[in-house]
């Protein structure tokens, strides 16, 4: 018989299956009603073959599809969700997480840049990439859009380590040719050539996607932004990943460097850097007109509430942006290392808090949607991951509402699945991630990890 162990990454038969309470988000909860947006199957079954979901629904209705030698890994009293999609995270900043930073610019100069300089060393980059990938899996994240450093080695290392774990990663070396430490500068020409070489090596290989990655407008010359846009145009299907309107001081700085432009977003618009496949992190201080421009161009925003609260950057109006008159595609990002955690569960809760402070709270279904299917849509992967639908890649996370004594007590009082999801976000972290599956195989098992149950970790 096939057991849970047989479904571990790299071993076992072609067909694997998982049974337990299933949560899916069939429609966008910012536009549809709760009943259409949330699907809950108390005794559900996911059947997977060759990395994809072949059937999803009621166990009783689907059990006949299981081959005689396959018995599903059974997670009663858990919750199975689509794997989390982290739409903005820096693999070169893991070791400066949780550092004090009075504001964005001070944090970049004192913490982020000195750390990123270390990634000139390929060995350092490789070790950091392995730690980063393990941290993603431990937190239930199966897809991520990632900033490297200016060094091509950082992106190579991440793609290699992600491929070893079959993680779905989009990454790019950072483009930055001004207003940064000398050791982190490239040029418009070298940045274009190095990005092109990486893209040729990695884009479309296995689950890798290339993301052309100008850091932000203040650290790129007009020539570099033009080169980035040219590369993006020349390679359809690649992503464009940058930061926008994170803090008021940064917005003013960007405007002063591009005085001919109407505003920060217009800089990217002018150089041809908006459109489907463009993912802009933060967007906290975008005006309603700028948000409407994101909607009109199909540009997505990566909302990073943990980072925004940690650096005092501001409050992103999630409900207005994802659900207003001009709905923008929004995903959630941890923004490690400005963000202090890899946990998308914690980030879901931070999103709720930031929205509440805006006077427009988002509910659990909306926040988890952003962390899964919304993020997949932001990365152009809505048909590929994020909804546990047949045909999708079989990436999912198994959450444990009894991971800690207090969580167990509180979860026992939850009256419905929506309340349980909220409690898991508010009180959970990597300890509540019982298992993470990539392409139908278990890639992280909390209870098998050497650190042991409840030992904490990234
Ligand atoms: N803006 C430009 N670079 C960065 C970065 O590394 N982190 C954050 N949070 N914002 C940025
Ligand atoms: Zn960032």
Descriptive account of the structure:
The chain is of the alpha/beta class and 458 residues long. It has two domains: 2-82 and 388-445, Urease, subunit C, domain 1; 84-378, Alpha-Beta Barrel (TIM Barrel), CATH 3.20.20.140. The chain is built from 16 helices and 17 strands. Strands 6, 7, 8, 9, 10, 11, 12, 13 and 14 form a nine-stranded parallel sheet that branches. A four-stranded mixed sheet has the order 3-2-1-4. Strands 5-15-16-17 form a four-stranded antiparallel sheet, with helices on one face. Strand 7 (141-147), helix 5 (152-165) and strand 8 form a beta-alpha-beta unit. Residues 1-6 and 452-458 have low confidence and may be disordered. The site of guanine (GUN) has 11 residues, from helix 3.
The low-confidence runs, each spanning 5 or more residues with pLDDT under 50, are 1-6, 452-458
What would you call the structural class? alpha/beta
Biggest pleated-sheet summary: 9 strands, parallel
Q: Let me know the CATH homologous superfamily of the largest domain.
A: Metal-dependent hydrolases
Fraction of residues in H or I helices:
25-40%
The radius of gyration is 21 Å
CATH A-level architecture of the largest domain: Alpha-Beta Barrel
Distance between the termini: 34 Å
Binned strand content: 15-25%
